[in-house]
């Protein structure tokens, strides 16, 4: 599943299933989505997660150079949904610039952060 910016052919995100685990791979295109479309993007990501019991979510940020408030709000919405349904969420591939934003907002204390998508998948599948 992907959402395309009308000005670009690059995918903003993809959603993959690995058993009971959902992996959402974001790209820098996610930050370029026009204002007002963030609700549509949120709904596309959250809708399949609402049907799961105990959803485990990995956000792979290895293709994201930097993210701001719109994307941070999306992460928080996904995390709250996962928690409300007895699930969990982790991040992977977070670069230093984004890690600093997570540190400043203290969200690095909330979400486990893994070096790679594979490491995050393995850790969440063990839970």
**Domain count:** 1
Any idea what the CATH superfamily is called? STAS domain
What's the CATH first level? Alpha Beta
The assigned CATH architecture is 2-Layer Sandwich
Number of strands: 5
Uncertain spans: 1-9
Which term fits the overall shape? globular
Strand order of the largest sheet: 1-2-3-4-5
Individual helix count:
4
H/E topology pattern: EEHEHEHEH
Could you tell me the CATH topology label: Transcription Regulator spoIIAA
The profile of the biggest β sheet is:
5 strands, mixed
Through-space gap between termini: 26 Å
Strand content: 15-25%
Give the class from helix and strand content and strand pairing: alpha/beta
Rg, please? 14 Å
Nearest-integer average pLDDT: 86
What topology emerges from the helices and strands here?
Blueprint: E1 13-18, E2 21-27, H1 38-50, E3 56-63, H2 69-84, E4 88-92, H3 96-104, E5 113-114, H4 117-126
Parallel strand pairs: 2-3, 3-4, 4-5
Antiparallel strand pairs: 1-2
Short account of what is shown:
This protein has 127 residues and is an alpha/beta fold. It contains 4 helices and 5 strands, in the order E-E-H-E-H-E-H-E-H. The chain starts with 12 loop residues before the first strand and ends with a helix.
Descriptive notes:
The chain is α/β, with parallel strands linked by helices. It has one domain: STAS domain (Transcription Regulator spoIIAA). It has 4 helices and 5 strands, in the order E-E-H-E-H-E-H-E-H. The chain has helices at residues 38-50, 69-84, 96-104, 117-126; strands at 13-18, 21-27, 56-63, 88-92, 113-114. Strands 1-2-3-4-5 form a 5-stranded mixed β-sheet. Helix 1 packs parallel to helix 2 (69-84). The longest helix has 16 residues, at 69-84. The radius of gyration is 14 Å and the shape is globular.
